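Title: Prediction job returns without error message
Component: structure pipeline
Severity: low
Priority: P3
Assignee: unassigned

Description:
Job completed but the reporter wants confirmation the result is attached to the right record. Sequence as submitted:
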Amino acid sequence: MQRSFLGRMIDRPEFGPFVLLVLMIVVFTSINPDFVSLLNIGNLLAFTVELGLIALAMTLLMTSGEFDLSVGSVFGFAAVIMWTLFNTEVMPLPLAFLVALGLCLMIGFFSGIFVTKLSIPSFLVTLGMLLVVRGTSLWLTDGFPQRAWNAGDQWIAEVLVGDFHICATGIAQEACGGLRIHMSLIWFVLFAALCHYILTRSRFGNWITAAGGNAAAARNRGVKVDRVRIILFMFSSFMAGLAGIISSIRTSAANPNSGTGYELEVIAMVVIGGTALMGGRGTIIGTILGIFILRLMRNGIVLIGVPGLAYNIFIGAIILGMMALHAWLERRHNAGT
């Protein structure tokens, strides 16, 4: 028997996160209308996309059956490398940017090699890489942040983080309530569209899903599982490095400790969005919902007067609730009801 439209919508992994996101917006807005002010929305978008970039790549990697705990340390490492090379006048900023991202790709490559060729679990490999990369950042800087406030006159800063208003200048700009859009949001939208296309419309996306669903069967069908996973580890490190550089330009500081704990928050975003932790199922749309759920939760509890230290309580409850919902939907789908 063919299911109704509502039944098919409920079965989708994005349904639960979407309902939760709508409920959060309604509750926070009813308590404090400033939650949906254009000024607050602009600030949210500026902060959200940096973790969001990492979450997009993590979605593809987790769909393939692996995950990366080193993204938080790479987030800080890339910015430290770029600004160290530039501040010491070793090379101009655009070239330092490319070198930093190149090193990030190498980190991902070595993580992928250790996981695929030496058959070491990605948890252990990326945990070790986290410590190596974080330690390198601290050693290079003696634990002190690198100055980044002279990025304003660099064209690459405008390309990555330049901001603009969505309304006209002058009086009209003031009327838009201070809504400001950063170029980083444009990059996030472009990468989100690319990742969604790859995962749902491309042959490589089929390989990713097959690698996470049943790696042995995928190999028997000619899928180069190891190559797919190495590429995804490299992409994960690349996106973490890009996000870290964007953050350093926006905040005018490259802190070697920045990104601490981001790896778990990113994984939470991906899992809340409906991507299977063990691989075989992934959704970029769900991840985008998960990104906004966590970032809006952090912002909303502060606006309604809840102590910020309670953030982890809410996030833990959301993760448990979403996991229970996804498990119920999976059983419902398998039962055909």
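Comment from assignee: result matches the submitted record. Residues 225-251 form the longest helix (27 residues).
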